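Title: Comparing notes on inverse folding

I've been comparing how different people in this forum approach sequence design from structure. To keep things fair, I'm posting one structure and asking everyone to reply with a full sequence. Here's the target:
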């Protein structure tokens, strides 16, 4: 993936994460938040946000691993 594509994907996942958390918090703070369907929706939105966060963390770990390999192409251990 090209750097611009990776940046766009990361931005998209961050937007999904933030919007999901905002919706979950809004639903939790409503008076009728004890309704089972709303609790299920809040749990699903929270899980969606966690999933997006996991993708972002995975992308950053992959990027740092790629940078390490680029700086040390021989794979030898450096002290």
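Reply #1:
Here's my take.
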């Amino acid at each position: 993936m090209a750097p611009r594509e990776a940046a766009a994907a990361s931005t998209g996942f961050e937007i999904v994460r933030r919007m999901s958390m905002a919706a979950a918090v809004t639903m939790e703070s409503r008076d009728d938040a004890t309704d089972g369907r709303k609790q299920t929706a809040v749990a699903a939105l929270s899980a969606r946000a966690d999933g997006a966060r996991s993708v972002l963390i995975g992308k950053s770990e992959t990027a740092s691993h790629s940078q390490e390999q680029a700086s040390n192409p021989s794979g030898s251990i450096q002290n």
